[in-house]
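Case study 2.
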Amino acid sequence: MRQLIGKCSSLKSGVIGSLGLDVYEEEDSLFFRDLSNMLICDDVFARLLTFPNVLITGHQAFFTHEALTEIAKKTIENVTIFEKTGSAAYPISVERLA
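Prediction:
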């Protein structure tokens, strides 16, 4: 969060010409519903929205033809490998899920 606050001053001064974010740390309460009549309590997010050179997309970068094709390929690859070997190609430990 502190890094984004620093980016605000860098955006204002022109050190950063533009900023695009596809992931925002506290995005769960900010995207995928209409907030147009609600107060946004996240001060950093609200401040970033005031800049004309900032684009925040809320996890939408994956939603391209290329990305969805790669996701489908990896899914099929993972299922195929698991069927053949009984092991996941890209295992995720319980610790990583926490």
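The longest strand covers residues 19-21.
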